[in-house]
Amino acid sequence: MAAPIKMADIARMAGVSVSTVSRALAGSALVPQAKREEILALAQAQGYVINEQARNLRLKKTRTIGIVIPLGHEVGQLISDPFFIELLGRLADEITARDYNVLLTKVARPEPGWQDRLIQSQKADGLIVIGQSDQHEALNAVARTYLPLVVWGAHLPSQIYCSVGSDNIGGARLAVEHLVQKGRRRIAFLGVPSLPEVGLRYDGYRRALAAAGIAEDPALLAPAHFTVDTAYDTVRGLIDSKVPFDAIFAVSDVIAIAAIKALNAAGLRVPDDVAVVGFDDITIAAYVNPPLTSVRQDLARGAKVMIDLLFRRMEGENTPSATMPAELVIRKSCGS
């Protein structure tokens, strides 16, 4: 059997000192980014990170679960976003009920190897990642060697990591079909389809239009981001473009609420002139004016499923992903 790879071996292969390898693996800015990436790739290829992770997990338990929010797609999005707050609270309840602690990490600008550095820090026995952001491939890479990882998000083709999420396609179809039933034909889509969950919601939107015999209009795709200010500006831009629309399907309640504000500011009435449907059904959705119709994600159930799967994976079980059904909660913002 070959001897375990050592840091000195990585240093020799990379043609640098052991201290440089140590700094690179720790993500130090003292090592140029290109060299850091080269050393990280070499360490992974040689199994150095894999062996260290396995040894540390066997020998040391922290009784801590790490919750990580990567925001490569949306560096301006805050942890105080209502969706994050609600899901974090549910997860914390499930984790502390098992007598474990919670360690929260926001990764605002993920650099190569960010997930390996979290694992190497040995601060948590398992990781929950909220949202895939633009990090699908990075999560796939780490899942090849690190088992105690569960991600909230979409289930994608060729996915290696374990994910838990709602039926994004089905939920979006319910929302758009309801708008069609209310007589709406010019339905704008607010969201950035390049993101995994949003892409599936866009798929559901398109399927509902096709089933209703409504031709998709690219002019009604408005790439709204998950912050109130940018979503507001996107909707004002859509209004100013003079493209006719009589309904909005927003991929989050935060975007939907910003849309209602922008519509009101432009003198448009909700739902008389424009019907609005959101996604998530966060608590505040029922209290805005008018109350927001939304696709409910069952975050209480989602948090329980995520933690159950994570603890099974911490015991060595390679669990499957889980997709939960979505439910449309109808309120006054769509005319009902």
Strand order of the largest sheet: 2-1-3-4-5-11
Largest sheet: 6 strands, parallel
Helix content: 40-55%
Head-to-tail CA distance between termini = 69 Å
* Number of E-type strands: 12
Structural shape? elongated
Task: Round the Cα radius of gyration to an integer and report it.
Answer: 22 Å
Question: Average pLDDT, to the nearest integer?
Answer: 89
Beta fraction = 15-25%
List the helices and strands and how they pair.
Layout: H1 7-14, H2 18-25, H3 33-45, H4 48-59, E1 64-70, H5 82-96, E2 101-107, H6 114-120, E3 126-130, H7 136-143, E4 149-152, E5 162-166, H8 168-181, E6 187-190, H9 196-211, E7 221-222, H10 228-240, E8 247-250, H11 253-265, E9 275-280, E10 293-296, H12 299-314, E11 322-324, E12 327-329
Parallel strand pairs: 1-2, 1-3, 3-4, 4-5, 5-11, 6-7, 6-8, 8-9, 9-10
Antiparallel strand pairs: 10-12
Helix pairs in contact: 1-2, 1-3, 2-3, 5-12, 8-9, 10-11
Walk me through this protein's architecture.
It contains twelve helices and twelve strands. With about 325 residues, it is an alpha/beta fold. The strands form two sheets. Strands 2-1-3-4-5-11 form a six-stranded parallel beta sheet, covered by helices on one side. A six-stranded mixed beta sheet has the order 7-6-8-9-10-12, sandwiched between helices. α1 (about 5-15) crosses α3 (about 35-45) and α8 (about 170-180) runs parallel beside α9 (about 195-210).
